Amino acid sequence: MPPFVAVQCIEGPRHTRGTPPNVVETDARTWLLLVTGLLEFEDAVASGALTASGLRAGEVARWLPLVPL
């Protein structure tokens, strides 16, 4: 539901229904901190601000930051 979104952002197994196999969940503020490099993926997980479930969920970290400040 807006303003929130779900997106497949890296190549992975095809998913058609139910809970996807690799999920990263966080709030908007944490996501912005991650994509700008002001917060490390591992630190977000350790603090509980981000959850990563599934064997490949953590792979998204290699693409961060998107826009280093």
How would you characterize this protein structure?
The termini are far apart. The chain has a two-stranded antiparallel ribbon. 10% of the residues are buried. With 69 residues, the protein is of the alpha+beta class. It has helices at 28-35, 41-47, and strands at 23-26, 50-53.
Please provide the ordered H/E string of secondary-structure elements. Answer: EHHE
Shape: globular
Regions with little confidence, pLDDT below 50 for 5+ residues: none
Helix content: 10-25%
Share of β-strand residues: 5-15%
If you compute it from the alpha carbons, what radius of gyration comes out, rounded to the nearest whole angstrom?
12 Å
Distance between the termini: 30 Å
Strand order of the largest sheet: 1-2
- Describe the biggest sheet? 2 strands, antiparallel
- Supply the number of helical segments: 2
Secondary structural class: alpha+beta
Give the beta-strand count: 2
Show the helix and strand layout:
Elements: E1 23-26, H1 28-35, H2 41-47, E2 50-53
Antiparallel strand pairs: 1-2
